[in-house]
């Protein structure tokens, strides 16, 4: 019996009472709290505690049992699990929040969707092209009833809307190119050697999950809360490096404005390939087809200190550690997360062709990013800013750049089939091999 499709009868204090499932009540129901599983209770999860405390957190899951006491202080009625696969089978769940290591994200998200659960997943949604496509396709079949959001919380900054408005309203003419960059440089030689043994209650094999076997080393887990991912996400088996980290936040600033779906090509170059570690210095370029408001555009990503050229000598793009630039027929927009400038170029760029919006016609604010998702869980007709279609397309593009980097040549891509048409070796890199006992579609 599906709990969302049937009315349940129950007896309370000896009297007959009719109890409606939470999701049947709608946003104004008297018992309008979600039953949520929090997968990964430390690190980024701490940023969710306050808003989740307004709902019912009924399940906590973490590979480190020593994290449970603190989490249970906030969510005392939750059951605890080490294996997220068992947590997702708890029968009273409505939704899941995923704050695990990156190589588990697509797995947990897809399993949750298979159980008709709403999903909030920290970025990146996936670390392979195949994972991004599978999770996106699964959600697209259910998007009218399930709310999704990827944790690119900077999207709620009002500047994202202002940049989008300037471009859509023609402040720089016809858009032709868009660039994003991040200057973070965290270098590693290779996977860490074996060192010590996992402490009591620390389930390292469960942390490895679907990824290949590697020996335990405590340095993988030596980072502070919110930054612990920087100890492992640059390794190919555990993450997508800068692409999945600040690259997701910064490309979001660009992606929100250009209204793209999937590219038709990808090419990239950077430092010498390391089979263990994703590149620090790299640049990736994609071609995107025209849509109903603009012509075809080129999109680029630069990382590790590699930068696009400045539009004018007096503009120092390197002063922006994470930023975006948009090139149009009449000028440029340069932005970071919080601010933007318009740089008209040429005698015809007199801005007489551009009319600023009135206050009444500005794009509406996103508001509280996590609460936007919670509201959509209770009323799936509401939209979220970074759902699995928007975010899945974006990370698929970024991951295609890493594939092009690895094969060392421009690849032609068919977005409909998810196949590279000119490189069998690139096709082999669109997916990753999982350990026995792990499946993406459980």
Oligomer state equals: single chain
Based on CA atoms alone, the radius of gyration comes out at 23 Å
Biggest sheet layout: 9 strands, mixed
Q: Name the strands of the widest sheet in spatial order.
A: 15-14-13-9-12-11-10-16-17
CATH class wording of the domain at 157-186 and 241-367 and 389-428: Alpha Beta
Q: Please write the string of helix (H) and strand (E) elements.
A: EEHEHEHEHEHEHEHEHHEEEEEEHHEEH
Tally of DSSP β-strands? 17
The percentage helix is 10-25%
Uncertain regions: pLDDT < 50 for 5+ in a row? Answer: 1-30
CATH fold naming of the domain at 157-186 and 241-367 and 389-428: Dihydrodipicolinate Reductase, domain 2
Query: In terms of structural class, how would the helical and strand content be classed?
Result: alpha/beta
- Write down the overall mean pLDDT: 93
- Provide the β-strand percentage band: 15-25%
Instruction: Tell me the CATH superfamily of the domain at 157-186 and 241-367 and 389-428.
Output: Dihydrodipicolinate Reductase, domain 2
Q: What is the first-to-last residue Cα distance? A: 20 Å
Under the CATH scheme, the architecture of the domain at 157-186 and 241-367 and 389-428 is 2-Layer Sandwich
Summed up, the helix count is 12
Shape: globular
Q: Could you explain how this protein is built, in words?
A:
24% of the residues lie in helices and 19% in strands. Helix 5 (105-114) packs parallel to helix 6 (129-140), helix 6 runs antiparallel to helix 11 (388-407) and helix 9 (246-258) crosses helix 11 (388-407). The two termini are 20 Å apart. The strands form three sheets. The chain has a nine-stranded mixed β-sheet. Strands 5-4-3-6-7-8 form a six-stranded parallel β-sheet, sandwiched between helices. A two-stranded antiparallel sheet has the order 1-2. It is built from twelve helices and 17 strands.
């Amino acid at each position: 019996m599906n709990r969302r499709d049937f009315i349940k009868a129950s007896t309370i204090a000896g009297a007959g009472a009719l109890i409606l499932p939470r999701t049947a009540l709608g946003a104004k129901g008297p018992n309008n709290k979600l039953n949520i599983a929090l997968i990964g209770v430390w690190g980024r999860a701490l940023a969710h505690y306050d808003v989740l405390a307004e709902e019912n957190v009924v399940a906590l899951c973490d590979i480190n049992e020593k994290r449970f006491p603190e989490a249970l202080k906030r969510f005392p009625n939750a059951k605890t699990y080490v294996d997220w696969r068992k947590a997702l089978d708890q029968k009273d769940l409505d939704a899941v929040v995923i704050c695990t290591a990156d190589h588990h994200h697509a797995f947990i998200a897809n399993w949750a969707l298979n159980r008709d659960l709403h999903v909030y997943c920290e970025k990146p949604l996936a670390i392979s092209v195949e994972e991004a496509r599978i999770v996106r396709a699964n959600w697209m079949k259910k998007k009218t009833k399930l709310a999704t959001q990827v944790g690119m919380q900077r999207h709620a900054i009002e500047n994202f809307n202002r940049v989008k408005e300037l471009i859509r309203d023609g402040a720089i003419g016809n858009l032709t190119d868009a660039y994003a960059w991040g200057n973070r440089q965290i270098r590693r030689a290779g996977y860490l050697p074996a060192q010590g043994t996992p402490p009591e209650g620390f389930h390292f094999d469960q942390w490895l999950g679907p990824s290949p076997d590697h020996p335990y080393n405590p340095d993988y887990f030596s980072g502070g809360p919110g930054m612990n991912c920087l100890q492992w996400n640059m390794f190919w088996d555990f993450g997508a490096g800068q692409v999945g980290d600040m690259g997701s936040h910064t490309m979001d600033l660009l992606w929100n404005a250009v209204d793209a779906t999937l590219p038709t090509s990808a090419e990239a170059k950077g430092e010498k390939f390391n089979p263990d570690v994703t590149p620090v210095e790299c640049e990736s370029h994609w071609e995107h087809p025209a849509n109903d408001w603009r012509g075809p555009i080129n999109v680029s990503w630069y990382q590790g200190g590699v930068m696009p050229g400045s539009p004018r000598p007096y503009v120092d793009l390197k002063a922006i550690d994470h930023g975006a630039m948009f090139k149009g027929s009449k000028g440029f927009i340069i932005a970071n997360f919080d601010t933007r400038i318009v740089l008209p170029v040429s005698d015809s760029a007199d801005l007489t062709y551009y009319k600023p919006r009135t206050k009444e016609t500005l794009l509406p604010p996103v508001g509280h990013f996590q609460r936007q998702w919670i509201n959509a869980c209770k009323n799936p007709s509401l939209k979220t800013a970074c759902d699995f279609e928007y975010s899945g397309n974006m990370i698929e593009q970024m991951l295609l750049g890493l594939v092009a980097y690895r094969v060392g040549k421009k690849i032609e891509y068919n977005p409909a089939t998810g196949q590279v048409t000119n490189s069998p070796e690139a096709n082999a890199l669109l997916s990753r091999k999982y350990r026995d006992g792990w499946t993406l579609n459980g």
